[in-house]
Amino acid sequence: MDWNAFLDGFGVVTQPSNLLYCFIGVVIGMLIGVLPGLGPAATMAILLPIAYNADDPVSAIIMLAGIYYGAQYGGTITSVLLRIPGEASSVVTVFDGFALAKQGKAGTALGIAAIGSFVGATISIVGLTLLGPVVAGYALDFGPPEYAALALLGVLLVATVGNGNTVKALVAAAVGLLLATVGSDSFTSADRFTFGSLNLEGGIDFVVVAMGLFGVGEILYNLEERHGKPHVPAAIANIWPSRKDLREAGPAIGRGSLIGFFLGVLPGGGAVMASLAAYAAEKRIAKKPERFGRGAIEGVAGPESANNAAATSSFIPLLTIGIPANASMAMLYAALLVVGVTPGPQLIDERPDLFWGVINSMYIGNLILLLLSIPLVGIFVKILRIRPAILAPITALITILGVYTINNSVFDIFVMIIFGIIGYLMKKTGFEPGPLVLAFVLGSLIESSFRRSMLLFDGDATGFVTRPISGTILAFVVLVIAMPLIRKAFRRDTPEPTSAETEPAPREDSLR
Amino acid sequence: MRKQTLSLAALVAGAALALTACGGVQNTAGGGSDSGDYPTGAVNMPVGASAGGSSDLISRQISRGLSDELGGSFPVINREGANGALAAAEVAKAKADGSTISVQNASLFAITPLAVPEDQVTDIADFDVVQGVSRDDYVLVASKGSGFTSIDDFANADGKVTYGTTGVGTGAQLACALTFNVNDTPAEAIPFDGGAPALTALLGNQVDTACLQVGEAIENINSGKIVPITVFGPERVGFLPDVPTAQEQGLDVEVAQYRFMTVPKGTPQDVQDAIAEAMQATFETDEYQAFNEQNNLTPMEIPGDEVVAQLEEDKQRYADLVDEYGIDLGDAS
User: Fold this and answer.
1) pLDDT averaged over chain B?
2) Cα–Cα–Cα angle for A171, A442, A280, rounded to 5 degrees
3) Where does the record locate the signal sequence feature (chain B) (predicted)?
4) How far is B20 from chain A (nearest CA, A)?
5) Which of residues 338-367 of A touch B (CB under 8 A)?
6) Between A and B, how many CB-CB pairs are < 8 A?
7) Contact in structure between B124 and B88 (CB atoms under 8 Å)
8) Do A187 and B57 touch (CB under 8 A)?
9) Higher confidence at residue B129 or residue B157?
10) Alpha helices in A14-105 (DSSP H)
11) Pseudo-torsion of CA A163, A432, A256, A64, nearest 10°?
């Protein structure tokens, strides 16, 4: 590694104009992150012309990159306060984040999330600085069979996220997998469950499902609750995480950061898998796993660190091999083209000022975000003091606006409302939307990767086991399934644990 | 302290808004309005692809040009889905007064019909084509690990050759399918969701070959990570002068993606003329030419009626070829 170029990169960032662009970028990112729907990619598209007009192209790229990772911070806020996950990778944050908010600990949750995000992103940037090209090479070893195995592991982990009854979680997950099949088959273009509607041809958007089930479902449920019994406003104390919270969250942040860094390099689904794996890991390690879903601080710290670390490491494929890992990276790719640079293997040698300027701006941008988030947490938690009669319509407005901006489609708004009703009914009947949404996201990944693999193997499924990486992942999957059985066998003579049938009792975790 | 933070946030939000306003949608009232009254209000430009792809970027570039030439704003609206058929349906249904215009892809009209059910076919007859824009060539590339360096090497392949495509019903799929069929090479198509994942699989030696758009592949070709085999245009591509066309190598395969400006059928002629003129003026600017160069796009700035003739010809030719070689792009066709 060229240390001089690296240090020169800091020289580039610390120019006042670049610092200003970095600041503007992260703040815009944070604001649009708060509004679900209007994602970083669309915002970058709107601001792309700045790249033409900026005096220094590096400034423009620094700003656009800032929008992307800034949005990762903002997304947490609606997940925790309003139960609206703006993107797939913050779904798991909702479980414990919203539970904490209900207990009046929204400040703790947001504070820990901000710290976790900062640490996750920073660890990931260090990784990017030191290991970028190496890690990019390993991402290329992930072919369709590896993705299929990874997604299968993900679906298994989905069953661990709920805190209700395992059977209900599995039912919800199965419905999620079914919903993932809606749309034109991407291998044969045959229609599946589209009912002749061109709008369903491209499948259902994740955000539409998530905002409906979580956000709208919650609004409807609260309205009913308010009429049934007097609303007890949650006390809003503990603006700042206590020393104890920090001690509990610390290791989770560390683990989440590492998981996020490695899984985030994988294009397509990397960030979702990272947050899910981080959550499952925390629950597995925890002494009292039943706390999860009821306000465990590690359940916020792990996934939030992981998804920010993943967002940062998704720069690696773009900057080192010229492959955009997601829509936002594609926009950044376009912006680099505008300023006359084609991202690819030669970028680091041809334009070290740009390469290191952008990477080093992320150290500073994340520091700005942390410093900004802390005072803002105090303001945001005040939202919860608003009376539900006023907050509910505002939340409804945000979700409708957000869903519309994804595809500029009115159809999507109606789909979201339908999912809102389903979400309400699920809550009434004790089903959780989490497993459904996560299985929905993983469903298309698992299906297309599996079919792609079978085409590559020419129909011979043994390839899954003989390839080293997919074989290892599958062995792990088998282990996860077999563990509880093995344990049960050893414990045969000890008395059976109390029945897991009663609803609020800690469910028996089939995966432990 | 809290007040300060709030005012800081307000300041930043203001700055963000100001930036958005001056950078994004240029709704300056003035502008060189030398072509009558058009446009009278904002003109929507739906594009059937997500932000960041080449269709989206071309639309945005044209939008900038139209806005500079005609004044008024031409916001680009991403209306992703069904290979662009959703955006097309929106344009076809829109009022034919020039308030909705759209840059569309040839593949939607000439290739997608070969893969999708009858009732989902988008017909060019629902639109007036105003002006051609540019051509985006396909290139067949091989992974380093496959050892292929030319079409002749395919004869020595043991087993099926795998090829990654950018999806079902795309030009990339058609170009590759035709090549292997015409060349009589046993091969298997592996569809990916777009160019980036297909390129990733190729770089990782997961597939032997892939058909990609030149812009997607060129950087890795130039740095020697993947090997270009052939291009599919009528002549060689300026950005890859050493790569022969399929025709040169004795294969009757010619597939290209090109884009053109469309308006709803029945849009007044003076509006169409105003758009065409403004586009031609845009094509002359250095900025636009640099954009084409950067994105590896070959200008195809022909009049609308020539675009339609080309489309009809391509559609027939593709249908005949697919028929002749018994190629099935999608089970639903």
Assistant:
1) 84
2) 75
3) 1-23
4) 6
5) 338, 340, 342-346
6) 191
7) no
8) no
9) B129
10) 16-34, 40-47, 49-53, 57-82, 91-102
11) -160
Residue closest to A374 by CA, chosen among A228, A231, A179, A241: A241
**Peptide bond preceding B39: is omega within 30 degrees of 0, i.e. cis?**
yes
Token couple for A17: 């104009």
Nearest to A255 by CA among A269, A227, A275: A275
With 0-12 / 13-18 / 19 or more C-beta atoms within 10 angstroms meaning exposed / middle / buried, residue B188 is middle
Find the mean pLDDT for residues B217-237. 91
In sequence order, what are the residues at sequence separation of 6 or more whose Cβ sits closer than 8 angstroms to the Cβ of residue B100? B43, B44, B45, B46, B90, B91, B94, B263, B264
Q: Which residues of B touch A201 (CB under 8 A)?
A: 81-82, 85-86, 120
In Å, how far is A104's CA from the nearest CA of chain B? 21
Give per-residue pLDDT as tens, A67-77. Answer: 998 888 888 88
| Cβ-contact A381, A129 below 8 angstroms | no
| C-beta atoms of A188 and B330 within 8 A | yes
CA distance A42 to chain B (A): 6
Question: Angle between the A106-140 and A352-380 helix axes, to the nearest 10 degrees?
Answer: 160
Q: A235 pLDDT exceeds 60?
A: no
- How far, CA to CA in Å, does B203 sit from each of B207, B242, B296? 9, 21, 20
Q: Write down the pLDDT at residue A226.
A: 65
Check: CB of residue A14 under 8 Å from CB of residue A365: no
| pLDDT tens track for A305-345 | 998 999 888 888 888 877 887 778 888 888 888 777 778 77
Rounded CA-CA distance A263/B60 in Å is 33
Distance of CA B214 to CAs A149, B141, B252, Å?
Answer: 32, 10, 20
Question: pTM of the entire structure?
Answer: 0.81
Position B27 scores a pLDDT of 39
